[in-house]
Amino acid sequence: MNVLYSSQVDQVNYESEGSVLVKLTDNREFKGKYCVMAIPPSLWTTIKFTPILPGIKRQISQRMPMGCIIKTITYFKKPYWREKGYRVKFFFFFFFFSFSFVL
């Protein structure tokens, strides 16, 4: 997998199942199965998506200012929950907060 840093995306075109074309502002194009963009939702409006993003995602990008989300990642030396037979992932959503953890 190739990772491209510090490149401004102009368009993301989902051409078919498992095919996406990404166009950058410097006219470079990349085609692949997936596109992973690590940007805040408020910047989604700067990119032209084809087809357009679903309504809820467009609303999030317009109503969620930068800095209102906190993400945490916790690392364990070993997955002790698997030894106990737990394989459940929980998500908790409260207002603008969401929590995810595995037992």
Overview features:
single chain, mainly beta, four-stranded mixed sheet, two-stranded antiparallel ribbon, 2 helices
Walk me through what this model shows.
The chain is built from two helices and six strands; from the N terminus they run ββββααββ. The mean pLDDT is 77. The chain has one domain. β2 (19-24) and β3 (29-32) form a beta hairpin. The protein is mostly beta strands and 103 residues long. Strands 3-2-1-4 form a four-stranded mixed sheet, with no helix packed on it. It has a two-stranded antiparallel sheet with strand order 5-6. The chain is extended and about 50 Å long.
Can you lay out the helices and strands and say which pair or pack?
Blueprint: E1 9-16, E2 19-24, E3 29-32, E4 48-50, H1 55-63, H2 80-83, E5 89-94, E6 97-102
Parallel strand pairs: 1-4
Antiparallel strand pairs: 1-2, 2-3, 5-6
What is the count of distinct domains?
1
Largest sheet, strands/sense/barrel: 4 strands, mixed
Secondary-structure-derived class: mainly beta
Which H/E pattern describes the elements?
EEEEHHEE
Q: Choose one word for the global shape.
A: extended
Gap from first CA to last CA: 30 Å
